[in-house]
């Protein structure tokens, strides 16, 4: 055994309460090094009567490590534990301090989970697991009320630029809710709706006011109510890292300088506020002088922003917040934010925009989830860019699963493109078969999937601003085949609960190849998913119980032969197989 590779520590994603009764233990080891792992666990106060060996299973792997896991329901909500590691005939006991050939005679030197205190359990909103999100960039979705158009509005469908407007608004969203219901959408994530000067609205002028080019508070109430009547949840976007140049406190500081009562609302390095060689004398988003960074260490700023967070939940009934540039805001503010939001609605979804490994924010005291860009990169590297083979992709997904507590992974926000990236179809160089294959994995994986508006009808676009085109509402210009694919995919995900909450095990992941097969399992229910990421047909053979299998996507049927299932897939083909009854 390579003991240097073995790793465990209490709390974080290694030892945590999954619910009020269950503790999950995890252990890392060198890939393919251990053949068996057991948790040696019991209650420290009645050790001799309670100690037992609990088998652990390998729940994930990456290119270097295996990750083992077990779930324990201790009778008294506390646990002393170590590990028994086996590699064929060799075995080692692991305690908190060392490795030993001898079983620990007493529990004193073992790891400890002191107690499952309800306040420490990371609780996430259960509804998110069953939700399919749809991201709307309001200015470009639909113009439902020309009377509130901004000055200089352009005809719908023109070339998007960073500073032009086409008149999209909230009435336009209401007018097209039938489109979302037909598709099967059950959640909308809106980019910012608050008053601002830009078309993207990430430069907030007034956090308590809907941008008049979109509508007003009564209109957004009407929209939220209409969504809720259709079973669609609503997620608002907020920028609490920075404001816009027309935010009243910043205007005051610009005018009065050090004499402004709001001078400490921002992170000013020196007065006067000016820009020298492209660098402002105050902190901003990037080096953008129009987006001054808010000082969330200031009690008045915290109170103002927390009131904003509470107001829109209570006043309008939104179902959660997506938080822009979340990793540049201090952790204590997010802890206060969570308390405020969950007090207003315990079932609200708190989603942070973080583009990298995010475990410091996913311990139950800040966010429920983050925008899962490591997932995005893995799928695109495998299907689109071709920089990962099937084995490398499986390893990337395994690594991602190992990073967070299970409940965080269950509500991860899984996207393939957004207003900040080139569109999926463009990344696929117009190849809709590749696009479908990427989406197929997205919708047969855990977490909550999100479609960027227009992807479902073939909207393309390069990097911002081109990815922010006007939605195409002319049926003759929509790709209805692509729409039907997404509609079917969403329907299959809704019909098969195992695709939403089951475990994932990779059955076949070729090293140097493109064929991938994995099982999603929930209790006795099993679904096999097969992918052919290649420009020619290939046959995948996987172990399978039972006699007959049915492809939920195509309707085709297959039979096993000596415990094996062989399925021929076309170029960039796929199958979602369930056992025939």
Automatic annotation (TrEMBL):
InterPro entries: GH, GH13_cat_dom, Glyco_hydro_13_lg-like_dom, Glyco_hydro_b, Ig-like_fold, Malt_amylase-like_C, O16G_dom_2. Residues 135-493 form the Glycosyl hydrolase family 13 catalytic domain. This is Glycosidase. It comes from the Bacteria. GO terms for biological process: carbohydrate metabolic process. One of its GO terms (molecular function) is hydrolase activity, hydrolyzing O-glycosyl compounds. It holds the Pfam family Alpha-amylase_N. Belongs to the glycosyl hydrolase 13 family. Keywords: Glycosidase, Hydrolase. The keyword S-adenosyl-L-methionine does not apply. The keyword RNA-binding does not apply.
